[in-house]
Amino acid sequence: MDGTKAYIGYGGRIFIVDCVTEDVVIHQMDGYFCDFYDAAQLQTSGEDFRILASSESELFAFGPDGALRWKTADLGIDGVLVHCVTPTHIEGCGQWDPPGGWQPFILATRTGERIGGGVASQ
Question: How many CB atoms lie within 10 A of CB 60?
Fold first, then answer.
């Protein structure tokens, strides 16, 4: 990453601040912000995304320029977690029936489309 973007998750929004130009881009989430996942920490090349951001029900993928690459909704109703990323897919789970009602999902790394029999919606 070029190191010029700062990502802030707060409430139901993601703020992407360009630290050089001071421009700010805001992405509204469907519910509250959960977590950021850095491609470097996920042991992926970072070609398909550099940052993943999760909300209570969605997963967002951002490129190195801070642009939104894709967004996948209906992954849960009370939290979305990412467990691992490979060059082809993202494995995670969404909370559907709190507490403890986590359901797995698999998404295509490049597009965010669901793969296989993961939960599509409840």
Answer: 23
User: Is residue 116 situated within a structural domain?
Assistant: no
For residue 67, give both structure tokens.
């642009």
Work out how many domains the chain is built from and give that number: 1
Query: What is the CB neighbour count within 10 angstroms for residue 69?
Result: 18
**CA atoms of 19 and 28, how far apart (whole Å):** 21
- Which residue range forms the structural domain that includes residue 11? 5-108
For residue 98, tell me if it sits in a domain: yes
Which of the 8 DSSP states describes residue 114?
A: B
What is the spatial order of strands in the sheet that 101-108 belongs to? Answer: 80-85, 89-97, 101-108
Provide the β-strand partners of residue 70.
Answer: 61
pTM for the complete prediction? Answer: 0.88
Q: Mean pLDDT, 10 residues at a time, over the chain (122 residues)?
A: 83 95 96 93 78 97 93 96 92 92 95 75 38
